[in-house]
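Late entry, written up from scratch paper. The run itself happened at the end of the previous shift, but nothing got recorded in the book at the time, so transcribing now.
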Amino acid sequence: MPDRADHVRPEGAAERWTLRHRPPQHSLFGGIYGLVLASAMVAALDPSGEEADPGSDVLWVLLTALASVTAHGYAQVIAQRPSDGAVKRSRLRSVLAEWPLAAAVLPTVGMLLAALAGWWAEATAVDAALLFNTIALFSLGVAAARSAGYGWPSSCRAGSLDALIGLVIIGANALIE
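Output as recorded:
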């Protein structure tokens, strides 16, 4: 039985390289939040017994993502204390730092645009987006845990919990329809 806990990685050349080149945790968490937002929006906009309108759905997903980015960035701006000129310059950066949330909805938007172009039905686009987002939630959960220094078993558990959110959305979508 090893001395260290399961969640602590051993230090080696690969681990040091990973720590130096890891994405900021804020980007990973923004991506997770964006994927959950996109999944919830596409599931809520999925028509059951109504005429499909993927163009409107694309606009709603983008508008919701932009509103979330703006609200989260603005909340960070409000939380900053106006002590010097550096704070004023960092206000715009605080809002722009929320780009991972907006970027995370783009695969869903792309799938809905494919439905708008007639490449597949909107229901198929919604199903594909929900599946893709659930797999991406698992992947980002694992990446976030690994970048925080957790080992593979703990990271996979974290990814599984993130994917569980996607599965709950899929289940709710199936029950509501």
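Residues 54-79 form the longest helix (26 residues).
(Scratch paper discarded after transcription.)
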